[in-house]
Amino acid sequence: MSDTNYLAEGPRTAIRPFTLADADEFTSRARESGAVHRPWLFPPTGPDTYAAYAGALIDDPTRAGFLVCERHAPADGAIAGFININNIVGGGFRCGALGYGVFAHAVGRGLMSEGLGLVLDHAFGPLGLHRLEANIQPDNEGSIALVRRAGFRLEGYSPDFLYIDGAWRDHERWAITAEMR
Questions:
Q1: What one-character-per-residue DSSP string does the chain give?
Q2: How much is the pLDDT for 4?
Q3: With b meaning 16 or more CB within 10 Å and e meaning fewer, what string describes 51-71?
Q4: N or C of the chain: less Cβ packing under 10 Å?
Q5: Residue 2: is its pLDDT beyond 50?
């Protein structure tokens, strides 16, 4: 179904905030996408974990969550993926950290590239941010390709950066600023 609450629209995608009503579609798509996400990402796959996850994105002013939705039939309004801005800091820093995932049916279709462009425009426009970072495990080639296409630059390497799936994982630090857009 088409959603009139889009924050921004591109030729094939649009972005909108998470809602609690998205639980069934989001968790179903997350369950179908386990092979795409593992070992890097573990989005919520049940109603209770989704409610906690989405609730934090909705209620926490240091986070902003966006659903990337398809715009045209037959999948009009279908969720293709999600992009979150976490750890938003204002003042002289005006920065946030990206987290994102694509759902299996949207892999390789360019929908996340378009959606990320919409999120960057929103972050550097209405949200007033200056810099976004994406910390990516070095073997996650798809994620690295996504940020490269969006114009991010590789800024460094952080050993044992994030605790994921039972271990501290190394990450590459990628970043983009408003001026780079």
A1: ---S--SEE-SSEEEEE--GGGHHHHHHHHHHTHHHHTTT-----SHHHHHHHHHHHHH-TT-EEEEEEE-STTSTT-EEEEEEEEEEE-TTT-EEEEEEEE-GGGTTSSHHHHHHHHHHHHHHTTT--SEEEEEE-TT-HHHHHHHHHTT-EEEEEEEEEEEETTEEEEEEEEEEEGGG-
A2: 63
A3: eebbeebeeeeebbbbbbbbb
A4: N
A5: no
Please, what is the Cα angle at 121 between 115 and 42, to 5 degrees? Answer: 40
pLDDT tens per residue across span 149-160? 999 999 999 999
pTM of the model: 0.93
Residue 74, pLDDT score: 65
Phi and psi at residue 118, in whole multiples of 5°? -65, -40
The pair of structure tokens assigned to 106 is 């949207």
Give me the mean pLDDT over the 85-96 stretch: 96
Query: Would the pLDDT of 95 be above 60?
Result: yes
- Dist. CA 181–CA 139, nearest whole Å: 26
Percent of the chain with pLDDT over 70: 96
- Which residues are paired to 169 by β-bridges? 162
| Spatial distance between the Cα atoms of 95 and 178, rounded to a whole number of angstroms | 10
